[in-house]
Amino acid sequence: MAKIPVKVPDIGGAEGAEVIELLVAVGDEVELEQSLIVLESDKASMEIPASAAGTVVELLVNEGEELSEGDVIVVIESEGLPEAVASTEEAGSSVAPEIAEPETHGKSTTEQHSKSVESTPASATDQTVVVPDIGSDDPVELIEISVAVGDQIAEGDSLVVLESDKASMEVPAPFAGEVIEVLVTEGGTISQGEALMVMRTAASSGLDEAKPERSSPATAVSAPGAVASAVANKAPVHSSAEHPVGRGEGSVYAGPAVRKLAREFGLDLSKVTGSGPKGRLVKEDLHAYVQNSLSSRPVAAVTGGAGIPPVPDVDFSDFGEIRAESLTKMAKLTAANMRRSWLNVPHVTQFDDADITDLEVFRKGLKAEAERRGTKLTPMPFLLKACAVALRDNPKFCSSLSGDGQTLIYKDYIHLGMAVDTPAGLLVPVIRDVDKKSLWDLADEVIELAGKARDRKLRPDEMRGGCFTLSSLGGIGGRGFTPIVNAPEVGILGVSKADIRPVWNGEEFKPRQMLPLALSYDHRVINGGDAGRFLTQLVGLLSDIRRLAL
Known about the structure:
The chain is an alpha+beta fold. The protein has 4 domains: 2-121 and 215-239, CATH 2.40.50.100; 124-202, CATH 2.40.50.100; 246-303, Dihydrolipoamide Transferase (Irregular); 345-549, Chloramphenicol Acetyltransferase, CATH 3.30.559.10. The protein contains 12 helices and 30 strands. Helix 10 (379-393) packs across helix 11 (439-454) and helix 10 (379-393) crosses helix 12.
């Protein structure tokens, strides 16, 4: 009989993962790959499986204890080597076993390792594809898996679609090959550097092929009177995202981040209804539950009489046929952001018209040069450039209030947001250092970022850091609208559709192309005089573009 210690395998770099449940006790008979304990890190819950069948003779951890890779959790008494080891030996030279360095070993182990590597023929290599740099360390939701096991994938093909609080993005294949194993599920969350799937690609022979990238750390195997040796533990770490384990919450379908938030709120997850895939609980469900719980109390008790009564629910099916369609995560976030800005920012909107007749003559005269440059010069670069000049000369519009409302923070950079209407919802990519770029540079960047937004390829860092936002409906129509300030910014410019109007020049009416502008601002920071000066200067810059050179 051999006593086999089972260690915590590679858990994706998580340190201090908490033991949230013990699934076995001393004396229990366990099978190979049977789950022993459940760990929970900041990013995932996972079950640690048995590396051998046998009897649990020692249980070395307790609930609530924090473990790291390599910590011993149980000792299993088993007859001979674990089945995982035996199956590896039976496979022969067609599969190169993964040999881990033991604490003490003899010459025979080293010789066996060398012989194993030398006998491995040239073959395909299994490589693990991980989440690349997504511009943030925060977990993002996996909303779609675009491939399946067995698919032949070309380099650059989309593998999965991720969605953060601000954007959706596709993860492309870093190389061509066949999908061998998908390691994630739709509806879960994942972070930069975590494994997505295993792909098989053609490779040459050598040591690297004998040791595929995707491996688990070794589990020591020892027997009395024998020289200690080690063989890689092939038993997988089972993710518990699909069948999560809760403490007193039954089979609630929720990830660790949601469970952590529930503990902070003191919520019983079994009382919350999930809106995610397959009824999975997401953070928004907890926020909605808390909000509904608070709104169900008397308004005076919750807000001192200043609360906003909710709009009552109506059963519209009483009046005819209806269709119900769930909002996308992005639509929900946009609605929440707009509501927050509208409720927190005292809005004022001022209107004016800019005479862009000469600007349009100049812009259209550059059409041939734009084609030679391989770009397209739209009115947007002129608007961006004019706003940059007006922001430089009116620095209050390039500021933000501190969280406590006691300090005004001026920004010595000019990054402008550009609202883009996409099938997935409204996105606002940010163009940086607009004041330092030429009209041609801005033309290229406008086209690039708008295309990324429509293709759902914007990174989160490409939508952060804006000082002021432009929202243009010129291509759609309308004579004016009141845009909502994108807090913590203090101003936003709404641009409507230009049209030809008769304008009195002091002697006669002349047809001029007029562009309607609407400037919304935070009245806590900007007063009417500030806004009047900003908008008057902006109108002057657009009416005589020579001023942009001053």
